[in-house]
Amino acid sequence: MRHEKATRLLDLARMLAGSAEGLTLDEMASALGVGRRTAERMRDAVWAAFPQMEAVDDPPTKRFRIPSGLDGVFQTPTAEELAALRVAADSLRASGADARAASLYALEAKLLSALRGSARRRVAPDVEALVQAETIAVHAGPRPFEDQALLTAIRTAIKGLQALSFRYEGGSTPGRTREVTPLGVLFGRSNYLVALEGKGGKPRSWRLDRMSNLTVLDKPAPPPEDFSLQAFADESFGIYHDEIQDVVLRIHKSRAEDALRWRFHATQQVTPEADGSVLVTFRAGGMRELSWHLFTWGDAVEIIAPQVLKDMMVQELREAGRAHGAW
Q: What DSSP element (H or E) covers 125?
């Protein structure tokens, strides 16, 4: 129990050292899953151990932070943390995300080089044992396109609030040069730049593997203040964006346990029914991609709404049936 308390205090110290603006007592309590009074006692204990901690006025409250960071002795990563980092890098490489995998391998090398010799010798065998005992299940699908130079240019433009220009081989006018305001990157089965083209338009997705001659322009291009990349992604099932629909699915009781653990969409509500089935509701666009996913549920799923999704599923079934001689 004493070890657990010490670990939680160290976790709080790391939070306070890792936050530039600091944390309020309520934010500490929320992050640690404790009451405000407990958070106050923990803050005082951390303050006693790290007297460099400071309070910053942020009316109507105060924020607390450790501005100079923590000594390296408190920051030694565990074998489990290093193994998780390696497995994450291996997973990205296995899926074709070589650029992001390279960043994680570089981070692992930096962490190991920062360790003292004795700590590195102590943790290395455990890391290798864990990595050998854990592997990645590779799923079928397209390998995402990740060109390091292209991603670097996009990130440079996003950080500098600058416009981007590129030749695009997709859309209704292949080969046309586009000038856009970059908003972010969506990583998935295929990778996309989310950007605005022109004034008054809506954000669009541009596939990275169809872009060439990409140039960061010396032209300011700040994103709209109210834009959220996460909210944009949540509007769709997968990548495709079209009209937002109210989706209602009933999962048969034979797959109810799977449905209760499944993440169909970020906005989903999952409700067990009296007959043992499960009702799943959410709002999203991208009905074609959703219909493709629902194939994997076989006869365990019933589409209650919308009608457009029902019609799309029926059409997909007919086409699949014709392709395999069913009719």
A: helix 117-133
Q: Identify the band that residue 180 occupies on the pLDDT scale cut at 50, 70 and 90.
A: very high
Amino acid identity of residue 324, one-letter, is H
For 243, phi then psi, to 5°, come to -60, 135
Kind plus residue range of the DSSP H or E element containing 297: none
Rounded (10°) angle between helices 287-294 and 307-323: 60
Please report where in the chains the tokens 């999203």 appear, as a residue: 284
Rounded to whole angstroms, the Cα distance separating 212 from 287 reads: 30
pLDDT digits over 77-100, tens only? 778 888 888 888 888 887 778 888
For residue 72, name the pLDDT band (cuts at 50, 70, 90): low
**Are 215 and 165 in contact, with CB atoms under 8 Å apart?**
yes
Q: What is the pLDDT of residues 53-71, one digit of tens each?
A: 889 998 889 999 988 777 6
**CA atoms of 153 and 208, how far apart (whole Å):** 12
Instruction: State the number of CA atoms in the 13 A half-sphere of 93 facing the CB.
Output: 12
Q: How many Cβ atoms are within 10 Å of 23's Cβ, its own excluded?
A: 21
| Cα(227)–Cα(21) distance, integer angstroms | 23
* Rounded Cα–Cα distance for residues 313 and 294 (Å): 8
Do 233 and 191 form a contact (C-beta atoms < 8 A)? no
b/e per residue, 272-293, with b = 16+ CB within 10 A? eeeeebbbbbbebbbbbbbbee
